[in-house]
């Protein structure tokens, strides 16, 4: 019988199997930017659980699954790590308080995991880890309904996962063009195979001799973005988000709210636990969404954005107010919430001493090291929040691959947490400057988001691999010049690239140009570029150069 000790060993084996093969999973990434790294994110997420469950002995399968889910939630890194944690969170719900794994609760565990993961993304994209997990669950259900035992159910789930993985290139053209399968899906198969080694043979796959994992950098860590989706056209006008504090007397199920929202919009996310329901929807009737949600409880963290108007508003300047600087906190201690002394506080993610100092000068209480060179875990961000002496804490991820991890802190923090989904460093600084201490948190959240969206961001990095991507034939080492996260052109001369990229960014009404130069750019190079820019734009733009010391990106450029 598969008891708690066996499940514990299976999770350890899964972690080792993924860690041993993480580089192979990382290499499946087809995007050429040197970020990459689904295997590393998933591996580090699982490792966070192994440290805790290894201490447990003689517990039930339900207890092991519950502790594992909690550890994965806090240790989740990157989008793939968050989705992995959600799959195991559902897995724990399916097993419940049972002492043993059975064919029945295993089938339920797979199904609950898939349901939770699909709910957590704005627009589930098929051909990713979501598809692989879904097909595995479907095969597990079929196997259980056929009367098979627990080992056969698990084996059939693995067979389904492998079949779905092999088919991912047929569902996503980007994968097929690159000649690879989905990296997250491959990681999930490795997890299941590692578990099966214990279930079937009683053998924990040993940890191999691999170099210590370094968490990945900027942009997506999978073939999908922070919402698990590819870019799509706007169908509905208003992006509407809020959290419902559930009314204990309400007998309605969150699924009813989801069904209603799907009838009036798209990109629906309804994530719930015992206390809250987190909602995201694109709709033409946000008032209707709010009225329906109010029947479930009171609303907080309300945000409504006109998506069609965002590009127009990006042409105008944000009026910002600076804040006094504060120090960056040390996050290495055990999580112990500090006393609340302020109404508002700020946590920002940034890599590089210069960027850290910049956010501190803008009033950020705690800067979490990460972004371009490290995807911090949910636990890292939670530690920063709890170390901030404020009742309400605004979190600035500054990276689309960190947003999901940051959002996982909302229901588990002792503070009121508002995540401003900033995708770049310039968006984060703009959000800081837009804060008004005389306004309430909801008004500030809207203002900060609007300010972030008005900032045009350019980045220059290098190609980590040869690639044929998005119409560009790219050679390893060439300079990738990116606008709003998409490749604009490829070049080999850094200074010429910067001038060309900035020319694309500067518009008729532009007034401010800020250049953050990285650790691989000398002060002399930065001064040379600044002189060139002053010669060309000095009469029109206020030009600011800041040593950011960021890795990976030579220049991070913002225009407003």
Structural features, described:
The chain starts with a helix and ends with a strand. Helix 1 packs across helix 10 and helix 4 (61-75) runs antiparallel to helix 5. The protein has four domains: 4-201, Serine Threonine Protein Phosphatase 5, Tetratricopeptide repeat, CATH 1.25.40.340; 238-313, Alpha-Beta Plaits (2-Layer Sandwich), CATH 3.30.70; 342-453, Rossmann fold (3-Layer(aba) Sandwich); 456-559, Hypothetical Protein Tm841, Chain: A,domain 3 (2-Layer Sandwich). A hairpin with a 3-residue loop joins strand 2 (265-272) and strand 3 (276-283). The chain is of the alpha/beta class and 560 residues long. The protein is 45% helix and 18% strand. The chain has 20 helices and 16 strands. The protein has helices at 4-20, 22-26, 38-53, 61-75, 78-95, 103-119, 129-145, 150-171, 173-178, 183-201, 254-264, 286-294, 307-313, 353-361, 378-386, 403-407, 425-434, 441-453, 494-505, 523-537, and strands spanning 238-246, 265-272, 276-283, 297-306, 342-350, 366-369, 390-396, 416-419, 456-462, 467-469, 472-474, 479-483, 486-491, 512-517, 542-547, 555-559. Residues 210-232 and 310-333 have low confidence and may be disordered. The strands form four sheets. A six-stranded mixed sheet has the order 13-12-9-16-14-15, with helices on both faces. The protein has a four-stranded antiparallel sheet with strand order 2-3-1-4. The protein has a four-stranded parallel sheet with strand order 6-5-7-8, sandwiched between helices. It is globular and about 80 Å long.
